[in-house]
Amino acid sequence: MKKYMVVLFLGLSAFLQAQQRLSGTVTNNQKQPLAGVSVYISELHKGTTTNENGLFSFSNLPKGDIKIRFVLVGFGTQNKTVKLVNNEENIQVVMDEALFEMDEVIVSTAFNKMQSQNVMKVSHESIQSLQTKGTATLIEGLATIPGVSQVSTGTGIGKPVIRGLSGNRVLVYSQGVRIENQQFGDEHGLGLNDAGVESVEVIKGPASLLYGSDALGGVLYFNPEKFADAHAFKTNFSQKLFSNTLGSSTSLGINTATENWKFLARGSYATHSDYSIPDGDRVTNTRFNETDFKTGIGYSNSNFSTVLRYNFNRLDLGLPEEIGEQTKTKTTDYPRQGVDNHLLSLNSVVYLGNSKLDVDLGYIGNDRNEFEDSPEAILQMKLKTFNYNAKYHLPKIGNMESIFGIQGMYQTNANFGEELLIPDAKTNDFGVFGTANYQWKSNVIQGGLRFDNRKITTEEHGEEGEEGYFKAIDQSFDSFNASLGYKTDVTSNLILRLNLASGFRAPNLAELTSNGVHEGTNRYEIGNANLKNEQNVQTDLNLEYKNTHFEFFVNGFYNHINNYIFTAPTGAVQEDNAVFEYVQEDAKLYGGEIGIHLHPHPLDWLHLESSFETVTGKKQSQGTGDDYLPLIPANNWNNTIRTEFKIGDWLREGFAALSWNATFTQNNVSGFETRTGGYSLVNFGFGGKITLGKTVFNLNLNGNNLLNKTYIAHLSRLKTDGIANMGRNIVLGLNFEL
Questions:
Q1: Residues with Cβ < 8 Å from 274, sequence gap 6 or more?
Q2: In the 8-state DSSP scheme, what is residue 521?
Q3: What is the pLDDT of residues 133-148, one digit of tens each?
Q4: Does residue 650 share a domain with residue 535?
Q5: Shortest CA distance to 683 belongs to which of 716, 731, 611, 734?
């Protein structure tokens, strides 16, 4: 019986596979073949590498347009779209030598265009490039991207901030689905580990057209690790050591693929002691431990492509309160937090001739436990979320591409602990949208329209008039949103982008229902069941100039938010805590980023980079003048001098970088904040690919805050206790391809 089933399965697989085949040759400008070029079709998760004659080939491809990416160190990335009509297609690819950044394909926007063709300016960073900066966690690496910051609680907890907006105003996507992990909480981080993640894309501005509620401030979109090339088997081991926290991070992964099937798995573990401030004291209970496991299996043929991925992440976090007992232990003390996160995703593409259907399904299980002074959790919240997202790519009409989609979410929150932050609740989201992209010559115009509905129902809990009482609510929030963008090549080297988009955010459960003392704030917070949607409109302008030896960009934005939600004091005191209630006023944020990258000729080994970012946020109070919004990052100026080199045959792709980062004084604070003084940090990095006999590995050595500067970041939640940020930290990273 087993033999018949195997024969039946193989026969079905063969039947599904069509005969479309693509081959080609990759050369340089001198017509010399290039070996070792990575050739990748991201939508099919298929990859290969050119041989010594520059040849590559793929089989079992679908008919229609196929987007292919060609990458080789020292050469500019080539992104080509090939229309497969015949059973056999052959192409010739010429790659130019280039030393600037690659022109990446952006997958977080609707039409997966190359960055140079995209209507929206999206920041793209590989995780490898972030890791070379020596940061301890993924969120610390993200905070080095212009326009991105973090609200931190020690080193283990960080919440992303995009142009002054954070929490439920910023969406996080991983494995193609939105992450839901009680992101309203101040003491809850991303729940993601950088191991097994290839890159991150940052949309700075409202993205509700594609993502619905909570993308009012922007989106962090994490692209998972790629599968191996066909007929390849790879094993990878990496190790990082951190001097300040006496910490380590270890990761081991396997990755293999046949012509149609792919499989990968990766396990990681990180552990850190309390971090040390410049005077030598350790900040008690900032220690944390993280366990992460990722796996995926994929199948593709000429009719469809599908990938099933699973990610388990466990965080054991100490919750710092003071500089107390000095210890180097990595065992968390009380109070502490334990968070388990399960992420299961299924991403499929079905090819329908000249059109296709793209479907993403996701399940997120988030189990959050807080322990006050014993092994029994005083607070336990289980959040279960099912996401769906279906996009139908209509047949292309001339130069116009269009997409119609539906998107939704079903979510339940259940409490099992003694304390409740929010009540048991159910949330239902449903959205429908359409968007189109029209291109002529070097011009692109893109627009779209969307409608969303969010329905929230909660259960009554407790006794009316007492702390912890939650009144039952049953509310529905609707919103229409639109976007319009234009991109043009002003000259052959100068790109102009102009975007106008709206976004919205429905009030979260804490804002609607809170009734008690909020952890870490020492204030009694009261929710407001009458809150309306936050609704914003943002204008973005981007200018980008690039030639062989010089790059320049400037981004400017103005963001107006109706019904911005925040807490305000009532003047009352309850249980020895000042009472705050959630209220709404209009607000505005404005600012931008500017940067240059100079690669002077003939000093091909030298790079000079400088960037500046600023954001101002104000409430538009009537009759009382403007009041600044809370948690707005200070202005920042970052400068780096970087060299690239090769030493014999034992050190290739070598680099050394020295950076000076100046954070300015933040005087523009809300009524509940204090000003924060400016500071400057000096960082150093060195690394490359080392070959010792038959052993090949990548090495990164970083020194962060080299001068051991004492400083307090404006967005640190330990600022109110006068606790400084981390002192000098030396990070050694090794990565072996086994």
A1: 245, 282, 283, 284, 285, 286, 287, 318, 327, 328
A2: T
A3: 877 788 888 888 889 9
A4: yes
A5: 731
SS3 721: helix
Q: What are phi and psi of 46, to 5 degrees?
A: -115, 135
CA 599/CA 609 separation, integer angstroms: 9
**pTM score:** 0.91
Is it the case that residue 623 has pLDDT exceeding 60?
no
DSSP 211: H
Q: How far apart are CA 408 and CA 411, in angstroms?
A: 10
- 2 — pLDDT class (breaks 50, 70, 90): very low
Rounded to whole angstroms, the Cα distance separating 161 from 165 reads 5
Distance CA(47)–CA(69), nearest Å, equals 9
Between the alpha carbon of residue 436 and those of residues 203, 221, 408, 446, the distances in Å are 19, 21, 21, 6
> E strands within 471-549?
474-489, 494-505, 515-518, 523-526, 534-546
CA distance 590 to 618: 9
Nearest to 62 by CA among 274, 256, 324, 303: 303
Question: pLDDT (tens digit, 9 = 90+) per residue, 353-397?
Answer: 889 999 999 999 999 999 988 999 888 999 999 999 999 999 999
Q: How far apart are CA 132 and CA 686, in angstroms?
A: 8
Listed residue (724, 728, 730) closest to 283, CA to CA: 724
Distance CA 713, CA 722 (A): 11
- 462-499 burial code (b ≥16 CB/10 A, e <16): eeeeeeebbbebeeebebebbbbbebeeeeeeebebeb
Q: Which residues of 372-407 are buried (b: 16+ CB within 10 A; e: fewer)?
A: eeeeebebbbbbbbbbbbebbbeeeeeeebbbebeb
Q: Average pLDDT of the chain?
A: 89
Beta-sheet strands, E only, within 394-422: 400-415
* pLDDT higher than threshold 90 for residue 190: no
Cα gap 456→453, rounded to integer Å: 10
Q: Is the per-residue pLDDT at 18 higher than 60?
A: no
- In this prediction, residue 249 carries a pLDDT of 95
Residue 29 has pLDDT above 60, yes or no: yes
In order, the DSSP letters of 287-314 are -EEEEEEEEEEEEE-SSEEEEEEEEEEE
Angle at 227 between CA 79 and CA 408, to 5 degrees: 85
Distances (CA, A) of 171 to 174, 486, 496: 10, 24, 26
Domain span holding position 608: 201-319+332-394+402-425+437-452+477-737
Residue 299 CA to residue 198 CA, distance in Å, equals 20
18 alpha-carbon distance from chain centroid = 36
Biggest CA–CA distance in the chain, Å, is 82
Are residue 63 and residue 212 in the same domain, yes or no? no
Q: Among residues 132, 130, 112, 128, which one has the least CA distance to residue 120?
A: 112
pLDDT given at position 101: 54
Please count the structural domains in the chain.
2
Strands of 21-27's sheet in order across: 55-59, 21-27, 88-94
User: CB–CB of 536/562 below 8 Å?
Assistant: yes
Tell me which of 45, 78, 98 is where a domain ends: 98
Encode 353-371: b = buried (16+ Cβ within 10 Å), e = exposed: eeebebbbbbebbbbbbbb
Give the Cα separation of 223 and 525 in Å (integer): 37
Mean predicted confidence (pLDDT) in 28-57? 87
- pLDDT (average), residues 519-542: 86
Rounded CA-CA distance 300/46 in Å is 8
Burial 178-194 (b: 16+ CB within 10 A, else e): bbbbbbebebbbbbbbb
Query: DSSP labels for 426-448?
Result: EEEEEEEEEEEEEEETTEEEEEE
Which CATH number goes with the domain that contains 410? Answer: 2.40.170.20
Q: Output the domain CATH number for residue 58.
A: 2.60.40.1120
Domain edge (last residue) among 75, 98, 121: 98
Per-residue pLDDT for 625 more than 80?
no
